[in-house]
Amino acid sequence: MKIICIGRNYSDHIEELANEKPIDPLVFLKPDTSLVLKNQPFFIPPFSNDVHHEVEVLIRINRIGKHIQQKFSHKYYDQIGLGIDFTARDLQAKLKSKGLPWEKAKAFDGAAVVGDWIRKCELPNVDQLQFEMTKNGDVVQRASTALMLRKVDELISYVSQFFTLKIGDIIFTGTPAGVGPVSVNDVLEGFLEGHRLFSIKIK
Predict the structure, then answer these.
(1) What is the SS3 assignment for 16?
(2) Whose CA is closest to 60, among 84, 77, 47?
């Protein structure tokens, strides 16, 4: 199982971090060791003083595919979820300034939260999903997949040109504006169309 992440897929998030809008989807990977185990907290790593939360809609691949045509992408997933891409922002900035890869800032142990899954047939159109994340009860990120620069079916088709998609692979589709730092004892909760899909404590 691999975790495929899409960066800079919401204009407001690109603007808040003063990044350039990518011509093609920005893709990076996380290893399976990035997953926070079920019902476990997220531990702030000792190498960062500025870990940020990034809530994202997730897609779970349910069949093997390579060079998938966009018109067939919808056949390759039947579950949608919500998760967090944790980012060591200080380390990422340092790596970016030197033109180095981001893996140490994005793919460290525990850098990915995957919440519960909902069957696609039980949700509205995947391109019109409402989602949000709260921190200690206050909404910090809220958006709709309608605001994605690259929609889900396009992402599946694009990614499959480079990586064979296998059953169980997860695609993180990008985060909207509102990313910010986490602190010890914070509680993050994620909601997709009113369904609470994760709750995690920071330690």
Answers:
(1) helix
(2) 77
Q: How far apart are CA 188 and CA 49, in angstroms?
A: 18
Kindly list the domain boundaries of the chain, sorted by start residue: 3-201
120: phi then psi, degrees, rounded to nearest 5: -55, -35
Looking at domain 3-201, does it have CATH number 3.90.850.10?
yes
pTM: 0.95
Q: CA-CA distance, 64 to 143, in Å (whole number)? A: 30
Q: pLDDT by residue (tens digit) across 63-112?
A: 999 999 999 999 999 999 999 999 999 999 999 999 999 999 999 999 99
Rounded Cα distance between 80 and 187, Å, is 22
Tokens of 58: 């997730």
Distance of alpha carbon 195 from the chain centroid: 17
CA distance 24 to 9: 10
CA 130 – CA 154 distance, rounded (Å): 19
Residue labelled with tokens 């997933």: 77
Q: What is the Cα–Cα distance from 151 to 17, expressed in whole angstroms?
A: 21
Tell me how far CA of residue 140 lies from CA of 108, 156, 180, 190, 192, in angstroms. 23, 28, 8, 10, 14
